[in-house]
């Protein structure tokens, strides 16, 4: 797979996640956040499991104990991101949530610099700034006073950055994106269901009322999109992956306006344009600079 194809997979994942923001918000009219997280990732685990078994037959090496521990750690990061985002949606809008979640585009290169000692291509910094500015403009160029949901979503962005970074480096070592996906889904489902059973009421009628959202987010946002993420990240860098995945805010804000009546001002369209420019420069500039380097 080429880097262009990988980044297009990440863009598709972001579009699916954008639709997931709407489903996550509407589902909580019927069911608590942790029951929703647990059920969506249980569905995702079951959806991916047949493909994991197929992947295991073709795998050249078995998963080591070290890699299994990394899978579990990535699952805990995924649970942290999913929980803070879902609970945050109770007291913030879909537009604000998609904007603030997109801050992981800044946190990923910072993690690469400070923890992995890996300096990204210089274009990542202006590209990240353009992407974040574009996401900000999607909110209309201003946010209301920060709510508890907004603050939780900032924490969510940190967890997403950790998950993106760890998933990218781990799947490059193992070559087992589906095994990683299934493990992180299962870890998240177990953690969320344990919390839900302890603190949230539930009924069969509530699950039935939220079933369309659970199935959409479980099969597509959790199953398909996260698999696309870990496959795509094998062939691109964590910083470029963050830029492309951040476009979920573009799709989330657009669908919130279309389906939930959340308004998108003129500045929102400027934000969309700026995000696409950021993705283009991050995609094109590294290749152009490599071609201009003299042969050794």
UniProtKB/TrEMBL annotation:
Q: Name one GO cellular component term.
A: plasma membrane
Q: Which residues cross the membrane?
A: 33-56, 68-87, 99-116, 123-145, 151-171, 178-199, 214-231, 243-260, 266-285
User: Under which name does UniProt file this protein?
Assistant: DMT family transporter
Instruction: Give one Pfam hit by family name.
Output: EamA
Provide the primary localization: membrane
Subcellular location, in the record's words? Answer: Cell membrane
Q: Which SUPFAM superfamilies match?
A: Multidrug resistance efflux transporter EmrE
Q: How does it sit in the membrane?
A: Multi-pass membrane protein
């Amino acid at each position: 797979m080429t880097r262009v194809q990988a980044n297009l997979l990440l863009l598709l994942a972001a579009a699916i996640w954008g639709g997931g923001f709407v489903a996550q918000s509407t589902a909580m009219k019927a069911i608590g956040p942790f029951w929703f997280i647990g059920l969506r990732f249980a569905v995702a685990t079951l959806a991916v499991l047949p493909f994991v078994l197929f992947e295991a037959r073709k795998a050249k090496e078995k998963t080591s104990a070290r890699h299994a521990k990394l899978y579990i750690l990535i699952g805990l990061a995924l649970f942290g991101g999913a929980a803070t985002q879902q609970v945050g949606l109770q007291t913030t809008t879909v537009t604000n949530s998609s904007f603030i979640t997109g801050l992981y585009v800044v946190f990923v290169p910072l993690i690469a610099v400070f923890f992995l000692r890996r300096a990204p291509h210089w274009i990542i910094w202006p590209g990240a700034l353009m992407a974040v500015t574009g996401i900000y403009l999607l909110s209309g160029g201003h946010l209301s006073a920060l709510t508890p949901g907004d603050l939780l979503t900032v924490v969510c962005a940190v967890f997403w950055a950790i998950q993106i970074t760890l998933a990218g480096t781990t799947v490059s070592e193992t070559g087992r994106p589906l095994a990683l996906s299934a493990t992180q889904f299962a870890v998240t489902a177990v953690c969320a269901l344990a919390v839900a059973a302890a603190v949230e009421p539930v009924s069969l009628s509530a699950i039935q009322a939220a079933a369309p959202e659970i199935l959409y987010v479980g099969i597509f946002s959790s199953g398909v999109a996260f698999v696309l993420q870990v496959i795509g990240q094998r062939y691109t860098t964590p910083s470029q992956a963050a830029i492309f995945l951040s476009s979920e805010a573009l799709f989330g804000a657009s669908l919130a306006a279309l389906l939930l009546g959340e308004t998108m001002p003129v500045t929102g369209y400027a934000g969309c344009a700026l995000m696409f420019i950021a993705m283009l420069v991050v995609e094109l500039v590294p290749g152009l600079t490599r071609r201009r380097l003299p042969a050794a």
